[in-house]
Design a protein that fits this description.
Elements lengths: L1 H21 L3 H40 L2 H8 L5 H9 L12 H10 L4 H13 L2 H11 L1 H25 L1 H13 L8 H18 L7 H7 L1 H20 L3 H17 L4 H18 L1 H32 L10 H7 L5 H13 L7 H10 L4 H10 L5 H11 L1 H26 L2
Helix pairs in contact: 2-5, 2-10, 2-15, 4-6, 4-8, 5-6, 6-8, 7-8, 7-18, 8-19, 8-21, 10-12, 13-14, 14-15, 15-20, 17-19, 17-21, 18-19, 19-21, 20-21
């Protein structure tokens, strides 16, 4: 046994040495490494502070403050299916989040008693169906693609959830029995929980609000004033609901003001306030500390996997418009026309690529100009924003390998079929 282990170690060492000695596809490897680091750098700057940190706090709040009975009543296996899947499928209309930002929210509701079907419906719909992305798709890529994306995403989310629930019915029955056997929890008044969660969601939505047209653009102009107002409301709620000391609340506001004064641009101010607030919650104890501990646990579980996945996606596929290990011309050549194979390749490419919210639209605009068919464009729109290599790693840590593989396969297959049908009937 020791000899086999030693031979294995020697084999690994020789393989690594030969790789560096010959360094095959040197330019491609260097391009991939460069893109991996730059994508991780961009991800850290653009998504962690304003997207993931609020999402972790929301997910932690769901785990601590939202009773399991409430989750099971609306999203559990005994809930009316039209209600459970209807709520989960349209949830993305208010969450302008990417496939990674939705993960803490998904983990929060799933571990708090949501059924596998509604939970995976929410997981898919969260990044796929936000209104701004659909409107932008219609304006830039045409009304046909915009409408097909809206209808396809809602239908796909419900179908994926139903098939996941059917495929893993026995396992889900056992899991839900454990939740049903747990004694009921005594929670705070419902109106407090609803107001508190709404304030956290408002901070997430407003902090990530992007450019748009009409009403969206007007909201964007005032987004940071609205974020400040929501943050002030949160501090008031922390005092009345959790008895956080006013000294800590003023310290949190002061840290944000000082950060903005020294480093204009909102990121340092936001991060400074989060750090002081985290210390305040830990110091306060009780439910406040439980909230912080739950948020921290989710962040510790998810963030390392996310960055590992971002590095992998950057190495192989690169940032939009930049070459990495896999040449982008291969993708452009394989998604021409509206055949089933072109749709499948578009769907599976989108499933492994990482798309930030709304970036899929200009990317597809370029690909359509290079000859991409309308069917594959829809297939990529349905699979790309909803799943990515980083999100797959995190989903596996929550659901396990078998369920994650089934979920990804369903996303790819359903996206392929939707794209093929759209291209066949409307792609001319």
């Amino acid at each position: 046994m020791k000899a086999l282990k030693r031979l294995y170690e020697i084999g690994i060492g020789v393989a690594v040495f030969l790789f560096f000695f010959f360094f095959p596809a040197r330019e491609r490897v260097l391009s991939g490494a460069r893109e991996a680091l730059l994508l991780a750098h961009w991800y850290a700057r653009e998504h962690v502070i304003f997207c993931l940190i609020p999402a972790f706090f929301i997910a932690g709040a769901i785990s601590v403050f939202v009773s399991k009975e409430s989750v099971m009543r609306y999203l559990g296996p005994t809930a009316p299916k039209p209600l459970a899947y209807g709520v989960a499928s349209v949830s993305g209309t208010i969450l302008a989040v990417c496939s990674c930002t939705v993960l803490p929210l998904f983990a929060g509701i799933y571990m708090n008693g949501a059924g596998l079907g509604p939970a995976t419906t929410f997981l898919y719909s969260g990044p796929a169906i936000n209104i701004l992305a659909i409107v932008l798709t219609a304006r830039v890529l045409g009304a046909g693609l915009g409408l097909a994306r809206a209808v396809g995403a809602i239908g796909a989310s419900i179908l994926i959830g139903l098939l996941m629930a059917l495929a893993f019915h026995r396992e889900e029955t056992k899991r839900m029995a454990e939740f049903s056997a747990a004694p009921p929890e005594e929670g705070r008044p419902l109106w407090q929980t609803v107001l508190f969660m709404a304030t956290l969601v408002a901070i997430l939505v407003l902090a990530t609000w992007g450019h748009g047209t009409g009403l969206w653009e007007r909201i964007y102009v005032f987004k940071w004033k609205l974020v400040s107002a929501s943050a002030a409301a949160l501090l008031v709620e922390l005092y009345f609901f959790f008895r956080v000391s006013p000294i800590w609340l003023f310290a949190t506001a002061g840290a944000a003001a000082l950060g903005e004064a020294l480093f204009p641009g909102h990121a340092i101010a936001f991060l400074s306030a989060v750090v002081v607030l985290s210390v305040a919650l830990w110091h306060t104890g009780g439910e406040a500390r439980e909230w912080f501990d739950s948020s921290y646990w989710l962040a510790r579980q998810i963030l390392p996997l996310l960055f590992l996945g971002v590095l992998g996606a950057g190495f192989f596929l690169g940032r939009p418009g930049h070459e990495a290990f896999i040449p982008s011309r291969f993708v452009a050549e394989l998604v021409g026309g509206n055949g089933l194979l072109a749709n499948f390749f578009a769907a599976i490419s989108g499933a492994f690529m990482y798309f930030a919210t709304l970036t899929e639209v200009p990317i597809l605009q370029g690909l359509l100009g290079a000859g991409m068919g309308k069917g594959p464009a829809l297939a990529l729109l349905l699979s790309g924003p909803a799943v990515s290599l980083p999100s797959m790693l995190v989903i596996r840590s929550v659901l396990g390998t078998k369920k994650t593989a089934a979920y990804v396969a369903l996303v790819v297959v359903i996206s392929t079929l939707c794209g093929w049908l759209f291209g066949t009937f409307f792609g001319g």
